[in-house]
Amino acid sequence: MKTRIYTLLIFMLVALQVEAQDKQTPPKGGEPKDFTLPEKEVVNFDNGLKLVLVPYGSIPKATINITLKTGNINEGPEEVWLADLLTDLMEEGTNANYSVKDSLSGMGGNLNIGVGAHTTSLSTSVLAEFAPEAVKILADVLVDPKLPASELDRLKKDMNRNLTVSLSRPGTQARKEFFAELYPNHAYGRQYPTTEQVNSYDLQDVKSFYDKNFGAARTTVYVVGKFNAEEVKSAVEQKLSSWRKGQKAEYPVAEPVTNATVKIIDRPGAPQSTILYGLPVIDPAHEDYIALDVMNSLLGGSFGSRITSNIREDKGYTYSPGSALVSNYKTGIWYENADVTTEFTGASIAEINKEINRLQNEAPSQEELQGIKNYESGIYVLQNSTPGGIIGQLNFLDVHNLPESFLVDQVKNINAVTPQEIQQMAKKYIQPEKMTLIVVGDKEKIKDQVNETMKTPAEIKK
């Protein structure tokens, strides 16, 4: 009986060892797939408007997106979020005698209007046979928006409510201060208005912003999916070919500063500290951009990155750290962001610097880099496998004046990056002595930690 038990135990032990060995040798991943930009047709109208038609996919739906090259970047110092208020009012529909909401709903779609730093967009996704009519509806909202004065006070109250809630959060407080430090004389640095600013806006301010920044010369109509191309072209011709040309797109170029500011925003009793730590870098048009993007993913921009592995997995200082490469017009920003336990605020900053210095002094292994490149390639292709993704990438090219080769060759260029280039990017662009540090937390508990780690006294802001 004992012999049988021993034999069984030995068998189980061997089986477990074999299983463990199998788990340690997963199959090799597939080769990264190239991104293929779908065939498209571009129609240019005399008033400067552009129509881009992209037949795509097999699902009988069409995504229509009208994008204008204007957004928060065109707001003046006393116009912060005025572009947002305009788009909120535009969602109320058109002066044409029908309900936009009901009409699009009957086509399987709805009205989406949004504004970002560089663009404003109106979009919907409808069943294929309704694409031409949906184009006409979006065009009506664009060219002849209702902008009802009766809704202005309600929308301003909603905006102020959202603003108050947002600014009560440490992440928003850090972001507001961080971008104001790096872009003190540009719209990029004016992330949030005051409630007084919002209250001061009237309907004439909204209309003036529309008149100044909206026009055919700044507008591209994207239609991606299944649709009748001739009928869509006819709809655009009918509704938008005679729209006023307006001014050509003009983005004011920012001049970021690198003052190596260290600032603490006091949040008494906070159990965590929010860290935002970074500096200006290059924009997507620069020849180093792809290599810098891959370096970001390896350093802090992916779940398997070095900073994340260090302060999350190894040290347990934080749950969800991450770095980002922000693409602005003719400028960019790299930053690391983390919410860390208060008692480890200084240690977290020290470990971030440690990982930056380690990458500057020693190139990553080919194996580590290949894992990051596979991740970057896969994410890139996946992101561009939908109509919305295709529109987003084409618009990215337009905003940054990039050739189509930027998209088509990106997987190839990602996989051409070498370990030595990654090290060089860290040396060239990620320089802690030039970085701005904003920490939101309990100053009584973190001030000495931050000062000791940064070797410079932090400015305290309440």
Automatic annotation (TrEMBL):
Keyword terms of this UniProt record: Signal
Source species, domain of life: Bacteria
Domain Peptidase M16 C-terminal as annotated: residue spans: 202-374
InterPro entries, A to Z: Metalloenz_LuxS/M16, MPP/UQCRC_Complex, Pept_M16_N, Peptidase_M16_C
The UniProt record lists the keyword Nucleotide-binding: no
Name recorded for this polypeptide: Predicted Zn-dependent peptidase
GO molecular function annotations of the record: metal ion binding
Signal sequence, renumbered to the chain: 1-20
Domain Peptidase M16 N-terminal intervals: 60-186
